[in-house]
Design goal:
There is one protein chain. This protein is mainly α and 152 residues long. It folds into two domains: 31 residues; 97 residues. It has six helices and no strands. The N and C termini lie far apart (64 Å).
């Protein structure tokens, strides 16, 4: 008789555990994954993928500064946040590719870094940074409607 109660309690415990785990998995599957940005990882990702001509002239600090300025621009637009526990919004946020470049170049103009952080280098850094943002899931695909943007 004791074996019957033991077997019954094992079966009931297993059913409760399976239902609970299934419920939690289903709940988490319906949530969007929050992308966590690591500046050091981004700097290494970008620096490793820049052209040889660019890497010969720029340091990791230069790349980190440009990425930091880019993040500042994204925060101002409401795309990025310092908080890691925010639920992603449902609103579609479209950021023009040229505007952050222009603002970053305006920050650089008139400084002693204008000779090393040229327009072409900043554009290359930001294009590579876009690849990093896509790789961690922070940025979605390009929005259609632009004839220059091919449909997936």
């Amino acid at each position: 008789m004791i074996w019957l109660f033991t077997a019954l309690s094992v079966v009931v415990s297993f059913v409760i555990a399976a239902v609970t785990v299934g419920w939690v998995v289903e709940r988490q599957a319906s949530r969007a994954r929050v992308a966590v940005y690591d500046l050091d990882a981004a700097v290494h990702y970008v620096a490793d993928r820049l052209s040889e001509a660019t890497t010969a002239e720029l340091s990791y600090d230069d790349v980190a500064d440009v990425l930091g300025w880019h993040l500042d621009e994204l925060r101002e637009r409401g795309v990025a946040s310092f908080r890691s526990d925010e639920a992603p919004g449902d609103a579609l946020v479209v950021v023009d590719e040229d505007e952050p470049v222009a603002r970053i170049l305006a920050r650089i103009d008139g400084t002693d870094r204008a000779n090393t952080l040229t327009d072409d280098r900043v554009v290359e850094i930001l294009a590579t940074h876009d690849g990093y943002l896509r790789s961690i899931g922070a940025v979605g695909p390009a929005v259609g409607g632009d004839p220059a943007t091919p449909e997936p």
